[in-house]
Write a structure and sequence with these properties.
By secondary structure, the chain is an alpha+beta fold. The chain is built from 7 helices and 7 strands; from the N terminus they run ββββββαααααααβ. The chain has helices at 97-114, 120-123, 130-146, 156-163, 167-173, 186-195, 201-205, and strands spanning 24-26, 28-35, 45-48, 57-59, 68-69, 74-76, 223-229.
Protein backbone atom coordinates (compact mmCIF):
# COMPACT_ATOMS: atom_id res chain seq x y z
CA UNK A 1 0.00 0.00 0.00
CA UNK A 2 2.87 2.40 0.50
CA UNK A 3 4.61 2.09 -2.88
CA UNK A 4 7.55 4.40 -3.49
CA UNK A 5 7.19 6.07 -0.10
CA UNK A 6 9.92 3.78 1.20
CA UNK A 7 12.41 5.55 -1.01
CA UNK A 8 11.22 9.05 -0.12
CA UNK A 9 12.02 9.99 3.51
CA UNK A 10 10.08 13.24 3.19
CA UNK A 11 6.99 11.23 2.31
CA UNK A 12 7.05 9.34 5.60
CA UNK A 13 5.03 10.01 8.72
CA UNK A 14 5.82 8.73 12.18
CA UNK A 15 4.81 5.62 14.10
CA UNK A 16 6.33 4.82 17.48
CA UNK A 17 7.24 1.21 16.76
CA UNK A 18 8.53 0.67 20.30
CA UNK A 19 5.20 1.71 21.83
CA UNK A 20 2.84 -0.58 19.89
CA UNK A 21 1.69 -3.76 21.62
CA UNK A 22 1.87 -7.17 20.01
CA UNK A 23 -1.26 -9.15 19.31
CA UNK A 24 -1.79 -12.74 18.17
CA UNK A 25 -1.96 -14.32 14.73
CA UNK A 26 -3.75 -17.58 13.97
CA UNK A 27 -4.75 -19.43 10.81
CA UNK A 28 -2.86 -19.35 7.51
CA UNK A 29 -1.86 -16.95 4.77
CA UNK A 30 -2.19 -18.02 1.13
CA UNK A 31 -1.12 -15.45 -1.45
CA UNK A 32 -1.62 -16.44 -5.08
CA UNK A 33 -0.22 -15.08 -8.31
CA UNK A 34 -2.92 -14.63 -10.92
CA UNK A 35 -0.97 -13.42 -13.95
CA UNK A 36 1.48 -10.96 -15.51
CA UNK A 37 4.93 -10.03 -14.30
CA UNK A 38 7.10 -12.02 -11.91
CA UNK A 39 5.59 -13.75 -8.85
CA UNK A 40 8.70 -13.40 -6.68
CA UNK A 41 9.02 -9.64 -7.27
CA UNK A 42 5.43 -8.68 -6.51
CA UNK A 43 4.61 -7.92 -10.16
CA UNK A 44 1.26 -8.68 -11.74
CA UNK A 45 -1.99 -9.50 -9.96
CA UNK A 46 -2.10 -11.30 -6.65
CA UNK A 47 -4.89 -12.58 -4.43
CA UNK A 48 -5.01 -13.14 -0.71
CA UNK A 49 -7.15 -16.26 -0.29
CA UNK A 50 -8.62 -17.35 3.07
CA UNK A 51 -8.55 -21.13 3.50
CA UNK A 52 -11.81 -22.46 4.98
CA UNK A 53 -11.14 -23.51 8.55
CA UNK A 54 -7.71 -21.84 8.51
CA UNK A 55 -8.70 -18.21 7.98
CA UNK A 56 -5.97 -15.70 8.80
CA UNK A 57 -7.02 -14.00 12.04
CA UNK A 58 -5.30 -11.22 13.96
CA UNK A 59 -6.42 -10.55 17.51
CA UNK A 60 -5.28 -7.23 18.95
CA UNK A 61 -4.03 -6.63 22.48
CA UNK A 62 -6.36 -5.77 25.37
CA UNK A 63 -5.50 -2.10 24.84
CA UNK A 64 -7.58 -2.32 21.64
CA UNK A 65 -10.34 -4.37 23.22
CA UNK A 66 -9.07 -7.62 21.76
CA UNK A 67 -10.41 -6.58 18.35
CA UNK A 68 -10.47 -9.49 15.89
CA UNK A 69 -9.49 -8.80 12.27
CA UNK A 70 -10.12 -11.52 9.66
CA UNK A 71 -9.37 -10.45 6.05
CA UNK A 72 -11.56 -11.78 3.26
CA UNK A 73 -10.42 -12.66 -0.27
CA UNK A 74 -8.96 -9.60 -1.92
CA UNK A 75 -6.41 -8.37 -4.44
CA UNK A 76 -3.11 -7.43 -2.89
CA UNK A 77 0.28 -6.15 -3.96
CA UNK A 78 2.15 -7.48 -0.95
CA UNK A 79 4.39 -4.82 0.51
CA UNK A 80 4.40 -2.63 -2.62
CA UNK A 81 8.16 -2.43 -2.24
CA UNK A 82 9.86 -0.61 -5.16
CA UNK A 83 12.28 -2.89 -7.04
CA UNK A 84 15.26 -0.76 -6.05
CA UNK A 85 14.45 -1.42 -2.40
CA UNK A 86 13.90 -5.16 -2.71
CA UNK A 87 17.63 -5.88 -2.64
CA UNK A 88 17.85 -4.73 0.99
CA UNK A 89 17.33 -7.03 3.95
CA UNK A 90 13.77 -6.93 5.26
CA UNK A 91 12.22 -5.32 2.18
CA UNK A 92 10.88 -8.31 0.23
CA UNK A 93 7.27 -7.66 -0.91
CA UNK A 94 6.26 -10.86 0.92
CA UNK A 95 8.65 -10.63 3.90
CA UNK A 96 5.90 -9.63 6.33
CA UNK A 97 3.03 -11.15 4.33
CA UNK A 98 0.53 -11.66 7.21
CA UNK A 99 1.02 -8.05 8.35
CA UNK A 100 0.63 -6.73 4.79
CA UNK A 101 -2.59 -8.71 4.32
CA UNK A 102 -4.12 -7.20 7.46
CA UNK A 103 -3.05 -3.71 6.39
CA UNK A 104 -4.40 -4.14 2.84
CA UNK A 105 -7.68 -5.43 4.26
CA UNK A 106 -8.07 -2.34 6.45
CA UNK A 107 -7.76 -0.17 3.33
CA UNK A 108 -10.31 -2.24 1.38
CA UNK A 109 -12.74 -2.20 4.30
CA UNK A 110 -12.29 1.55 4.84
CA UNK A 111 -12.98 2.34 1.18
CA UNK A 112 -16.10 0.19 1.15
CA UNK A 113 -17.38 1.71 4.40
CA UNK A 114 -16.86 5.20 2.95
CA UNK A 115 -18.61 4.23 -0.29
CA UNK A 116 -21.56 2.71 1.59
CA UNK A 117 -20.86 -0.76 0.19
CA UNK A 118 -19.27 -2.49 3.17
CA UNK A 119 -19.99 -6.09 4.06
CA UNK A 120 -20.60 -7.01 7.70
CA UNK A 121 -16.99 -8.24 7.94
CA UNK A 122 -15.69 -4.92 6.61
CA UNK A 123 -17.82 -2.90 9.03
CA UNK A 124 -16.01 -4.59 11.92
CA UNK A 125 -12.91 -2.44 11.33
CA UNK A 126 -14.63 0.85 10.46
CA UNK A 127 -13.46 2.41 13.75
CA UNK A 128 -9.82 2.28 12.60
CA UNK A 129 -8.70 5.65 11.24
CA UNK A 130 -5.68 6.41 9.05
CA UNK A 131 -3.12 6.84 11.90
CA UNK A 132 -4.57 3.67 13.40
CA UNK A 133 -3.96 1.76 10.16
CA UNK A 134 -0.27 2.65 10.27
CA UNK A 135 0.02 1.70 13.94
CA UNK A 136 -1.74 -1.56 13.15
CA UNK A 137 0.88 -2.45 10.55
CA UNK A 138 3.66 -1.75 13.07
CA UNK A 139 1.78 -3.86 15.59
CA UNK A 140 1.41 -6.84 13.26
CA UNK A 141 5.05 -6.68 12.15
CA UNK A 142 6.15 -6.62 15.80
CA UNK A 143 3.89 -9.61 16.47
CA UNK A 144 5.52 -11.58 13.64
CA UNK A 145 8.99 -10.69 14.91
CA UNK A 146 8.37 -11.51 18.57
CA UNK A 147 6.65 -14.77 17.67
CA UNK A 148 9.72 -15.86 15.70
CA UNK A 149 7.93 -15.99 12.34
CA UNK A 150 10.40 -13.53 10.82
CA UNK A 151 13.97 -12.62 11.70
CA UNK A 152 14.51 -9.57 13.84
CA UNK A 153 15.48 -6.52 11.80
CA UNK A 154 16.45 -3.20 13.38
CA UNK A 155 15.59 -1.07 10.35
CA UNK A 156 12.84 -2.47 8.11
CA UNK A 157 9.90 -2.52 10.60
CA UNK A 158 10.46 1.10 11.58
CA UNK A 159 10.94 2.34 8.02
CA UNK A 160 7.90 0.45 6.75
CA UNK A 161 5.71 1.60 9.65
CA UNK A 162 6.63 5.24 9.07
CA UNK A 163 6.17 4.93 5.31
CA UNK A 164 2.54 3.84 5.66
CA UNK A 165 1.89 6.83 7.91
CA UNK A 166 2.98 9.31 5.23
CA UNK A 167 1.05 11.47 2.71
CA UNK A 168 1.29 8.99 -0.18
CA UNK A 169 -0.46 6.32 1.84
CA UNK A 170 -2.91 8.89 3.21
CA UNK A 171 -3.80 9.89 -0.33
CA UNK A 172 -4.70 6.27 -1.06
CA UNK A 173 -6.73 6.13 2.17
CA UNK A 174 -8.74 9.21 1.22
CA UNK A 175 -9.41 8.13 -2.37
CA UNK A 176 -13.11 8.19 -3.17
CA UNK A 177 -15.01 5.52 -5.09
CA UNK A 178 -12.27 2.96 -4.41
CA UNK A 179 -14.44 0.10 -3.14
CA UNK A 180 -14.06 -2.74 -5.66
CA UNK A 181 -17.31 -4.32 -6.83
CA UNK A 182 -17.08 -7.25 -7.00
CA UNK A 183 -14.13 -7.49 -4.60
CA UNK A 184 -12.66 -10.29 -6.76
CA UNK A 185 -13.70 -11.33 -10.27
CA UNK A 186 -15.47 -14.73 -10.58
CA UNK A 187 -12.67 -15.92 -12.89
CA UNK A 188 -9.88 -15.08 -10.44
CA UNK A 189 -11.83 -16.50 -7.51
CA UNK A 190 -12.23 -19.80 -9.36
CA UNK A 191 -8.54 -19.98 -10.25
CA UNK A 192 -7.57 -19.25 -6.66
CA UNK A 193 -9.87 -21.90 -5.21
CA UNK A 194 -8.41 -24.43 -7.62
CA UNK A 195 -4.96 -23.76 -6.19
CA UNK A 196 -5.98 -24.32 -2.57
CA UNK A 197 -5.21 -27.61 -0.82
CA UNK A 198 -7.61 -30.11 -2.35
CA UNK A 199 -8.23 -27.91 -5.39
CA UNK A 200 -7.13 -28.84 -8.90
CA UNK A 201 -7.54 -28.06 -12.57
CA UNK A 202 -9.92 -31.03 -12.67
CA UNK A 203 -12.12 -29.26 -10.14
CA UNK A 204 -12.21 -26.22 -12.41
CA UNK A 205 -13.22 -28.32 -15.39
CA UNK A 206 -16.10 -29.64 -13.33
CA UNK A 207 -17.45 -26.19 -12.66
CA UNK A 208 -20.45 -25.45 -14.81
CA UNK A 209 -20.23 -21.72 -14.26
CA UNK A 210 -20.07 -19.18 -17.06
CA UNK A 211 -18.56 -15.78 -16.45
CA UNK A 212 -20.63 -12.61 -17.03
CA UNK A 213 -18.92 -11.95 -20.36
CA UNK A 214 -19.80 -15.41 -21.62
CA UNK A 215 -16.31 -16.88 -21.22
CA UNK A 216 -15.73 -20.20 -19.48
CA UNK A 217 -13.74 -20.35 -16.27
CA UNK A 218 -10.11 -21.05 -17.30
CA UNK A 219 -8.59 -24.39 -16.36
CA UNK A 220 -5.23 -23.05 -15.19
CA UNK A 221 -5.14 -22.59 -11.41
CA UNK A 222 -3.42 -19.64 -9.77
CA UNK A 223 0.13 -20.08 -8.44
CA UNK A 224 0.75 -20.02 -4.68
CA UNK A 225 3.63 -17.62 -3.93
CA UNK A 226 3.45 -17.26 -0.13
CA UNK A 227 2.20 -19.55 2.63
CA UNK A 228 2.50 -18.82 6.35
CA UNK A 229 0.73 -20.86 9.03
CA UNK A 230 0.36 -20.17 12.74
Amino acid sequence: MFAAALMLPAACGHVDYEAVERGTFSGSVYVMWIDDGSPDKGDGRFLFVPVPGQELTYTRAAKHGGQVIRPAMMYTDGGSIPKIGQVFKGFSPWGYAPAYMVHDWIFVAHHCVEDGKATEAEKVVETIDFPGSASLLAETIKTLTLSGKVKKDDVAPRVISSAVAGPISKGLWEKEGACPVPRVSPEDEARAKAALPGGSAKMLRGMVRTLPDGQKVPEKPAQVVAVVSF
